[in-house]
Amino acid sequence: MKMNDYRRALIAGALLSVMVTIDDVSAEPVYSSLGDVSSCKQYSGLPPKDVPIEQVWVPGGTFTMGSNTHYPEEAQERNVTVDGFWIDRHEVTNAQFRAFVEATGYKTLAERGLDPKVFPGLPDQMYRPGSTVFEPPRDLQVINLQWWHFIEGADWQHPSGPGSSIDNMDNHPVVQIAFEDAQAYAKWMNRALPTEAQFEYAAKGASSTTYPWGKSLHLDGKEMANTWTGVFPFQNTATDGFVATAPVGCFPQNAYHLFDMVGNVWEWVMDDWTPYHSIEEEPHPEIDLEDSLSVQARTLLLGTIKGGSFLCSPSYCKRYRPSARHAQDRTMGTNHIGFRTVSLP
Length: 345
Prior knowledge:
By secondary structure, the protein is of the alpha+beta class. It has a single domain (1-106, 170-345), classed as paralog of FGE (formylglycine-generating enzyme) (Alpha-Beta Complex), CATH 3.90.1580.10. Helices cover 13% and strands 16% of the residues. It contains 5 helices and 14 strands. The protein has helices spanning 3-12, 94-104, 109-112, 179-188, 196-204, and strands spanning 19-21, 55-58, 61-65, 78-82, 85-88, 130-134, 148-152, 218-219, 222-223, 266-272, 302-306, 325-329, 337-338, 342-343. The strands form 5 sheets. It has a 4-stranded mixed β-sheet, with no helix packed on it. A 4-stranded mixed β-sheet has the order 12-11-10-13. A two-stranded antiparallel ribbon has the order 3-4. The model is unreliable at 1-36, 41-52 and 281-295 (pLDDT under 50).
């Protein structure tokens, strides 16, 4: 697919405090009770406001951002310097987002639906309250993207549609969050969404390894993140313990004592989407659009998400890496997109 075709495809439809200061960063992943899969379901996220969200200090530094050896949109590698910042130790949870909603009366975009005056010319269904949900296809002759469906009534409290709920899932990451919803929460907390550079640096630091913990997906035979295990999109063997979202903190911390910087759910960052990093030249004339995230775009408001999710697999969307990135319609959440926030010193 040529680059101009790639841009057209993006638009047309293939997208869709407990403060811890870390000064001495080790290359070894850090394990704790939070990182124990057998006990992680007992962990409950800290509610915001009354008790500050646990954040970690990431000291400033220079790192190699991007990758020349993976998906073309990750190129070109270049040195980037970031100032130090505080970042949420884990993804914002259902309990934390509920506290925000109860304090402010906020309704998410999925609950409100799009305003036809702001977004004219869309199919009627796209204005109705709802969001996009992954459903495994039943037909082996599945066509691309058939596993994504716009479901009326899907929202953060009903991630898979009206019949679903988040009961007993307070410590799971909140999903079905559009970009403006994440921004509204961050503003309420007097914080912001991380930039793409901040997120990538927090995920891997100055390390040049493929994953936050090293060069291979597994470490000593252990699952290091919540990803798709099995044949995508038909079978998830759940060898990592989870078919969908995992409670935050189920897998080992990275060197900055951060959880789930890859896997579990994709996370919004501040940056607008660009199809590649370098503005001087296109890295490759062919672009691979396959991705477990792809949904039909409603608008031309394309943002950037990082980190991959429980729907990423080695055979389809190998984007559970710090350098990985993808476009996402800013008006559309899915049941595997969440976020975390940052604070400046």
